[in-house]
Amino acid sequence: MKARVHVTLKNGVLDPQGKAIGDALHRLGFPEVEEVRQGKFIELDLTDGDPATAKARLDEMCRKLLANTVIENYRVELLG
Amino acid sequence: MKSAVVVFPGTNRENDIARALELSSGHKPAMVWHGDSNLPKVDLIVVPGGFSYGDYLRCGAMAAHSPIMREVKARAEAGTPVLAVCNGFQIVAELGLVPGTLMRNAHLKFVCADVHLRVETGQSLFTSGYRAGQVIKVPVAHAEGNYFTDDDTLKRIEDGGQIAFRYSDADGDVSRGNPNGSRAAIAGVFNETKTVLGMMPHPENAIEARFGGTDGKGLFDGLVAALG
Lengths: 80, 228
What we know:
The complex is a heterodimer. Chain A is of the alpha+beta class. Chain A has helices spanning 16-27, 51-66; strands spanning 2-9, 40-45, 72-79.
């Protein structure tokens, strides 16, 4: 069973890296870019089991380690 | 004052802080490798600076969840004072021992420079060697020292007197001299009981006149005066 975790900065938290990426894209000729927010993408291989339990366990993984909930949100996708 | 310094793979300021502790207390601290399960009974635990676990995932995140830090957290919650500097601050913030978190510097650059700090309170184990409003000069060296916390927490820690140091200019003006974009120019914060201090600057690198001044020595002398 595969899972994907997306970790993104919360709204209102300044993202200097995203801003630097946006500035670089402008310099490269992409003036249509209005805002860039950078996050993390984490892929996990899990032993097969009950999807509901897996979801709950993934949620716990995010809260304990994968995301810092002071500044970050997370979203979990479970793929069959 | 007996102390222990926790060392992780990638820690690099352990000897600096060990020298500061020895100069002020007359005792060498115990150096405790993260894989050792036995943390000696001490009056002070120190989590020093460096790049524990190569800053993987987030600065301090991996170290914060290592077994030795579970023990440090338990001791801290039982009242043992903990001093956490630079990467140590990032680790104890990840662990929730002090409020807030440290983000990438606002200008995205590593900053290595002497900075001025305004001491916000002399009423703590860590700052009793200073007086409130005093300005000291100590170095910083970090890429992720940009202190962030939400509005509610900021108000709570300001009201609770949990801010130890703020960045300032030489005259103590905290609207100037912020090297990394930290909210409210916060350079160091306490937990609620003021028994844990997390700070980005390196007082251990300002303890000898020949090397960058002595303004950091007051912190260690104050700890020895408070803890014996």
